[in-house]
Amino acid sequence: MTLLVASNLSRHFGGVKAVNDISFEIPAGTVFGIIGPNGAGKTSLFNLLTGFLPPTSGSVRFRNREILGEKPYHLVDAGIARSFQLVKPFFGMTALETLMVPIWSRKLRLKFLTREMREASARAQLDRIGLADKANTLVDDLNQGDLRLLDIARAVSTEPEMLFLDEPFSGLGQEHVTRLSSIITDLKQSGVTVAIIEHRLRELMQLVEHVMVMNFGSKLAEGKPADVVRNPAVIEAYLGSKGMQFGSAGG
Amino acid sequence: MEILILGLSRGSVYALVAVGFVLVFSVGGILNLAHGTLFMLGAYFTYIYFNFLFGQGGTLALLASYVCAIVSVSLVALLLFFALFRRKIDSISYVMVVSLAFALFVEQFMKVYFGVTSTGVPSLVRGSVDIFGVRVLNKEVLLLPISLFALVALHMFLRHSSAGQSIKAVAQSREGAILVGIKPDRVLAMTIAIAAALAALAGTLISSLVTVTPTVWSYWLIKAFAIAIVGGLGSLPGAVVAAFLLSFVEIATTFTLTDQYGELVALMIIVAILLFRPSGLMSSRQV
Amino acid sequence: MSRPLLIARRAAAGLLDAIQALSLVFVIIVAGIVITALTSSNFYVLEILVLAVIYMQFTSSWDVLCGYANQDNFGIAFFTGISGYIAAILNKSLAMSPWLTVPISATAAAAAGLVIGWLALRLRGPYFALLTIVFAAVLSKLAYIFSHVTGGEEGISGIASFSRSVETDLLVCVALLFISVLCMTAFARSHYGLILRSTQHNEDAALASGINAAHYKVAGFGVSAFFAGVGGAMFAHTHMQVSPELMAGSLSVLVVLMAVAGGRGTILGPVLAAGALTLFNEWLRIIEIYRPIIFTGTLIVMIYIFPSGIANASFFARAPLLRRLLFGREA
Ligand SMILES: Nc1ncnc2c1ncn2[C@@H]1O[C@H](COP(=O)(O)OP(=O)(O)OP(=O)(O)O)[C@@H](O)[C@H]1O
Ligand SMILES: [Mg+2]
Known about the structure:
By secondary structure, chain B is mainly α. Chain B is built from eleven helices and two strands.
């Protein structure tokens, strides 16, 4: 079953075609990778899919319902969550408080949890990313890796069906990378569909079944990781634009 | 016709005040809500120097008190920056609040010492001229060329001097400026001093036209603030255009309606711009 | 259980939590005022206490929005003014009792707050600040233009007081303050406070967490305006007159400065600061001419020493017990 279908999706900024007539499908229960050089339009694509950017044209159907242009918080109710490439934490709040925020989304609010249940569920999420001991630490005092995991936990807390992760591995040390990889595998096992933008290809390729390559806002290639890596156009795009060593963990 | 002349002369003074306000915002990312106070101090210092230091002498004494007033206000601004702002310069809210407290303090101070005294200062020029059939006071006419001269000088300074270049560099990118070895702190101090000098110049020019009262700062602050935002916060040309725009609207409405309605219309225009074009009428960011 | 019942239960739990969160010092102050009202007949002392209570009401109502959403409202006088004048007009021309005018005028202020809050949604920082300044300025211009209704420069006088005696008036005011502070504490400690805090640095992450940030900000505006309105009506019915000063920029500025000095985002910090500073200002009357200079100078010094406000001073992080005593439980 396909969970999400994007057709002829475009978003232009003046003359820049950040996303240019892209179509693709994400099957339910899979991990979907999106790669491409800097400025290829990956984040813009996520912003379109999660309601943060009004489209120029196109259509996105999620579980057979048109969702393009809906507000981000309505999409959360529909089962879509995302993390951010640039993590901007809720300064002045503790890690635990950060994870209390999604509990007040419409979807979870209507469960009418008691205070104890709300706190327990936030603690469980903290535990899952291995930050249980930092529950009462102000986010201002957390390191970059912890903050990224916390942002992902915030997204996961909304109990999504479809999770968009924008460069989740960037800035993580080895320990955090291992933890995050296992969380993503767990999520997949429990039926969550995940889409990941990533520059660190080694980590990405181990997780995904399917990769889409973007360049200048357009789709360059799509397919199994092993095939995509050998695609001459993809190699050309990477070597040509950034001189990045494809195949190694660059980015 | 009268509207045109008054609009131009009033607008040029507005521009002097607003340009400094915008300049400080572009460079430091701070809003100095004591900017109206600096303007007011320009007028007060002129009065003080002229009456007490130069013993109400002739034109030369008047010119000297102008210069001294401008220098003094710049020093006050530097003091304000180093003593109060620098403590938490990254917080736009702290700077707004502490500068407002300073403004209140000066207001009270002036109320106690000059509350009832008239602060009139004679003008550099006397008499009046006929411009296209309208009688205008010479001192009113004088505002425009002096202000324009100051604005052009500012433009040249930013464009051609190395200090001006460093101001522009910090306004464009603080990080980039640091990389090429500019000390943003020092540049900001210089900017604040220049902005204060412009505001003080406006104050000295006004001092011969109207009597300044200790509460006048808030009126000028709101004007500068509004002009800055109408012009697009961060754009100097925008601020100059907005200054003349606002002064024309004001003068025109006061001529056609009553005073109260005139100000109401000006306020409503600001509300409309904030709501519908918050980035200002000229939204490109340039110094 | 039905939804309204659950929400009611949640509100009751919030109030209970707020009672537990109140600080001992605040309770002592309220008790002290009550005792003074019951025992003292010193007109001067009672009048000053009324004024202090009104300022406590103003600053806490400012803080309940601005301290949490971290937006600077430089026009709180809009709400105190509109409410004070509505109370005055209702009382004078319809002979309505203060028991009706207070809730009606505060509700009107809240409605105005919802509208302004909605209009200000997209604006941040300087833009937000200017909008609030300009709205307050528009209101006071309107008061001059419609001077046949508002009395122009003179304002409206001859408004009925709460009761016949200053003592009872003070009791009414302190009771209103106590209830208001309790409600605002409950609001700030509820998910409304949590979400307002989350939106101040990263609204996108709040949206991505399924939060309709606009709803919370507008609601916060309404609550802040409501309690500012209670304060404005309090002023009208204790001073028995309202004048343009109740909607003046200087009042707005004073409220911001006192609240910031007390420590934004703590409710009780601004309350205690407003109380202490009002009394201090009165005490300074012994050196009348220099009083305003010393008072504003003190504000500068306080804000300089405690740029985040007294209640947020790092000192209290090391002395949690003292903080609890003075400012109550942390959010
Ligand atoms: N708000 C915006 N306004 C104007 N241009 C934008 C905006 N957002 C993105 N762009 C442009 O769209 C293009 C795509 O940007 P995007 O951030 O989507 O790329 P990306 O693939 O995520 O890059 P990276 O790997 O660096 O994160 C870039 O050229 C960028 O400059
Ligand atoms: Mg990106």
